């Protein structure tokens, strides 16, 4: 009997070892990762980004966008933070970066600076970006979710890697669904993560086609006519000044809530990639659910963000802890 138990124990250990070998990197992350090496990491990141958000209210939306772009292009590895140099054109300078907002970058750089004073060389930029994004979502009224830590920073970042990996403002539902599916994200993940457009803004160039000269000089029929008119006025000078932008959620732009979904049902979706979510029969029921029930949106958003935040993470020797978030430790690459 006891012999069988021993055999059993050996078997369990062997299985555990095998499972460990095939376990994805994400399973190695833990909320306790810095418990000994940098116990104040959460507090420090929280202090820095809170201050930044109070002084610059566009920070939260900037960080969310940055985080999504980082994760969808080769995993959550802070590759998007690297600056281009004379040897390399980095991810953030890709054509589709649609001018990633500087306030998000700045919050991460400041948090890194504060952490390097407390525990030099310990906390990765990828972990800082993940934590900062979560904290900022909560600060705007959105849901809390767990962020496990231990990501390493990428040792490569290239413009070429962006190609075909990010949603475009004018993508169809089919294109969006297949882009997400390619990364094992579901239709529900697509709809619920699009809910991040409850904050932030988009430049007129991203939706100009919808409001000017859309088939016979009109506007996209998917847009509420008064909304289209207001956008035509607001964007009148966008070709001279490409920085002119409109809020993604015109009703409650500074609040993380389910208004984005309510807007979609009223023709107030800013981008084509927003509006297609109400015209496609696979996504429409989810838009209706989240528009009617903010609790359901928050619950599903939190789960999707947890999933996103471990997507393609690098652990162990697959990456490094960068000393500066904008450059690799080995400057010759
Ligand atoms: C991408 O973003 C960076 C940083 O905001 C900016 O300097 C660069 O001009 C952008 N690239 C393009 C092609 O828009
Ligand atoms: C989206 O816009 C780009 C250029 O602005 C264009 O090449 C592409 O065909 C458009 N895609 C769709 C689905 O309309
Ligand atoms: C809203 O969604 C939550 C979470 O899924 C659920 O528990 C609740 O019953 C829903 N409320 C209504 C009014 O349907």
From TrEMBL:
<feature type="binding site">
    <location>
        <position position="77"/>
    </location>
    <ligand>
        <name>Ca(2+) 1</name>
    </ligand>
</feature>
<feature type="disulfide bond">
    <location>
        <begin position="38"/>
        <end position="119"/>
    </location>
</feature>
<feature type="binding site">
    <location>
        <position position="75"/>
    </location>
    <ligand>
        <name>Ca(2+) 1</name>
    </ligand>
</feature>
<protein>
    <recommendedName>
        <fullName>Peroxidase</fullName>
        <ecNumber>1.11.1.7</ecNumber>
    </recommendedName>
</protein>
<feature type="binding site">
    <location>
        <position position="167"/>
    </location>
    <ligand>
        <name>substrate</name>
    </ligand>
</feature>
<keyword id="KW-0732">Signal</keyword>
<comment type="function">
    <text>Removal of H(2)O(2), oxidation of toxic reductants, biosynthesis and degradation of lignin, suberization, auxin catabolism, response to environmental stresses such as wounding, pathogen attack and oxidative stress. These functions might be dependent on each isozyme/isoform in each plant tissue.</text>
</comment>
<keyword id="KW-1015">Disulfide bond</keyword>
<dbReference type="InterPro" id="IPR000823">
    <property type="entry name" value="Peroxidase_pln"/>
</dbReference>
<keyword id="KW-0106">Calcium</keyword>
<dbReference type="InterPro" id="IPR019794">
    <property type="entry name" value="Peroxidases_AS"/>
</dbReference>
<keyword id="KW-0560">Oxidoreductase</keyword>
<feature type="signal peptide">
    <location>
        <begin position="1"/>
        <end position="27"/>
    </location>
</feature>
<dbReference type="GO" id="GO:0005576">
    <property type="term" value="C:extracellular region"/>
</dbReference>
<comment type="similarity">
    <text>Belongs to the peroxidase family. Classical plant (class III) peroxidase subfamily.</text>
</comment>
<keyword id="KW-0964">Secreted</keyword>
<keyword id="KW-0575">Peroxidase</keyword>
<keyword id="KW-0408">Iron</keyword>
<comment type="similarity">
    <text>Belongs to the peroxidase family. Ascorbate peroxidase subfamily.</text>
</comment>
<dbReference type="InterPro" id="IPR033905">
    <property type="entry name" value="Secretory_peroxidase"/>
</dbReference>
<dbReference type="GO" id="GO:0042744">
    <property type="term" value="P:hydrogen peroxide catabolic process"/>
</dbReference>
<feature type="binding site" description="axial binding residue">
    <location>
        <position position="197"/>
    </location>
    <ligand>
        <name>heme b</name>
    </ligand>
</feature>
<dbReference type="Pfam" id="PF00141">
    <property type="entry name" value="peroxidase"/>
</dbReference>
<feature type="disulfide bond">
    <location>
        <begin position="125"/>
        <end position="325"/>
    </location>
</feature>
<feature type="binding site">
    <location>
        <position position="252"/>
    </location>
    <ligand>
        <name>Ca(2+) 2</name>
    </ligand>
</feature>
<dbReference type="GO" id="GO:0046872">
    <property type="term" value="F:metal ion binding"/>
</dbReference>
<keyword id="KW-0376">Hydrogen peroxide</keyword>
<feature type="binding site">
    <location>
        <position position="73"/>
    </location>
    <ligand>
        <name>Ca(2+) 1</name>
    </ligand>
</feature>
<dbReference type="InterPro" id="IPR002016">
    <property type="entry name" value="Haem_peroxidase"/>
</dbReference>
<feature type="binding site">
    <location>
        <position position="198"/>
    </location>
    <ligand>
        <name>Ca(2+) 2</name>
    </ligand>
</feature>
<dbReference type="GO" id="GO:0006979">
    <property type="term" value="P:response to oxidative stress"/>
</dbReference>
<dbReference type="InterPro" id="IPR019793">
    <property type="entry name" value="Peroxidases_heam-ligand_BS"/>
</dbReference>
<feature type="binding site">
    <location>
        <position position="70"/>
    </location>
    <ligand>
        <name>Ca(2+) 1</name>
    </ligand>
</feature>
<keyword id="KW-0873">Pyrrolidone carboxylic acid</keyword>
<feature type="domain" description="Plant heme peroxidase family profile">
    <location>
        <begin position="28"/>
        <end position="329"/>
    </location>
</feature>
<feature type="active site" description="Proton acceptor">
    <location>
        <position position="69"/>
    </location>
</feature>
<feature type="binding site">
    <location>
        <position position="249"/>
    </location>
    <ligand>
        <name>Ca(2+) 2</name>
    </ligand>
</feature>
<feature type="binding site">
    <location>
        <position position="91"/>
    </location>
    <ligand>
        <name>Ca(2+) 1</name>
    </ligand>
</feature>
<dbReference type="GO" id="GO:0140825">
    <property type="term" value="F:lactoperoxidase activity"/>
</dbReference>
<feature type="site" description="Transition state stabilizer">
    <location>
        <position position="65"/>
    </location>
</feature>
<keyword id="KW-0349">Heme</keyword>
<dbReference type="InterPro" id="IPR010255">
    <property type="entry name" value="Haem_peroxidase_sf"/>
</dbReference>
